[in-house]
Design goal:
It is a single chain. The chain has five helices and seven strands, in the order ββββαααβαβαβ. By secondary structure, the protein is an alpha+beta fold. A five-stranded mixed sheet has the order 4-1-7-5-6. Helix 1 packs parallel to helix 3 and helix 3 packs across helix 4.
Amino acid sequence: MNDFTPKFRIGNGYDIHRLVTGRKLIIGGVNLKHPDNLGLDGHSDADVLTHSIMDALLGALSLGDIGKYFPPSDDKWKDVDSLILLSKVIDLVRKQGWEINNIDSVLVAERPKIKPFVEIMKKNLSNTLKIDNSFIGIKATTNEKLGPEGREEGISCHSVVLLEKKE
């Protein structure tokens, strides 16, 4: 063991949820309309963007994943707004003396189009995290009809977070 404490930590997060009927389609705290009236299946609101960011934040500090803190076996988290969960995760991060340097996320979905909603997603996330929205990058792509996203069986998100130790 040494006494080295890094100034930066990076975390990677990933989430995917199945598209189903009878559920809302919440991404980045925005209720989107799928052309086939599909939503994301999950214990909470199944917000893949917010979930992948939470996992990236937790992973950067080796704190486990969101299932450790908000297990699907606990009815307390049933249908909960994922932005509420994100606020709890960022509190954990800040209690350890870290701050977000930046977030970069890629949503993978054939439909609906995500780009028109990116700015409001960034606003929702920046308000929850209490950071400038310029620290958040959100991109969207299709999977070119390949894999579960391409077959419109689900929507996924990859996120990377860079944390900086505060003095």
